[in-house]
Amino acid sequence: MRSAAVVGTGLIGTSIALALRGRGVTTYLIDTNLEAARIAADLGAGIAGRPPEPVDLAVIAVPPQHVAAALKEHQLQKLAHDFTDAASVKESPQREAAQAGCDLTRFVGGHPMGGREQSGPLAARDDLFQGRPWVLTPSPQTRVETVERAERLAELCGAKPVVMAHAEHDRAVALTSHTPHLVSSLLAARLLYGDQSQLGLAGQGLQDVTRLAGGSVELWTDILGSNAVAVADVLAEFAHDVHGVVDVLRALGTAREPEQRRAHMDRLSTALVRGVQGRARIPARSTAGLSASTAYATVPRGA
Question: Which terminus of the chain is less hemmed in, N or C, by CB atoms within 10 Å?
Fold first, then answer.
């Protein structure tokens, strides 16, 4: 791949552009927020503005609800021969792209699995996707050549291409990314009811479990709303577990007989053991440097 365009110069788009420029790919930066595009260009991510002729591949790096509109716009303007995106939800953008009449033969959904809590081009890194999975979700209409170009994009960014179905991807990220962010936010919201004297005792553990809650509210409302059913399914199962532990703790608070207390303590211990076992299933690379948060352009459509 010799040329590319990135539509949306937020964290994700600028990080992709930086990686491509580092591999010698001529890269153009498009954003209706001209200042964001200029900052990305000043960082060495590419050339701010449209290319003089269609590039090999365009990356639509905007929030999920804006993917279809941006894809339609830039296909009509012949920005690139092939297109992919970087949104963290795949079913709804694909459906909306079909409804909008986009050319699905030259589009393949994509999701680089990397991110940070910070947003905007200044937070971008050329190694953000190094060693990370990069999911591709081709439709039955997608050309083989389009998929191959998107796979090459992932490889140029240091990532590992993984092909999945749209629904399979959305269920996976509901479990591994979207629900964790929502749970972190709900827990952090409980701190609104704490006295300052209580919050003064907060340690690193609280910082760790609420870290994701610092992400962009606008972006995460979009992401969660775009993957609502899959997130609701995981959250309902989590809520069932929470209610079970609440029942155990309340029973422990009133139990007086040693045998009763032992039974309740065993149930509590089982819940903790399952947590240890679940965490052990996370691949080692995922425990370092991967945030549930991804950030795109503040203004989603290209200029």
Answer: C
Instruction: Look at residue 95 in the predicted model and tell me its pLDDT.
Output: 97
Q: How many CB atoms lie within 10 A of CB 231?
A: 24
- Domain 3-165 is classified in which CATH homologous superfamily? NAD(P)-binding Rossmann-like Domain (3.40.50.720)
pTM for this prediction: 0.87
Residue 16 has a CB neighbour count (10 Å cut-off) of 32
Alpha-carbon dihedral sign for residues 13, 10, 168, 99? negative
The DSSP element (H or E) to which 26 belongs, if any, is strand 26-30
Q: What is the pLDDT of residues 283-297, one digit of tens each?
A: 886 443 333 333 444
Measured over the CA atoms of residue 99, residue 103, residue 104 and residue 108, the dihedral's sign is negative
Domain spans of the chain, in order of start:
3-165, 170-287
Look up tokens 């795949």; give the residue: 90
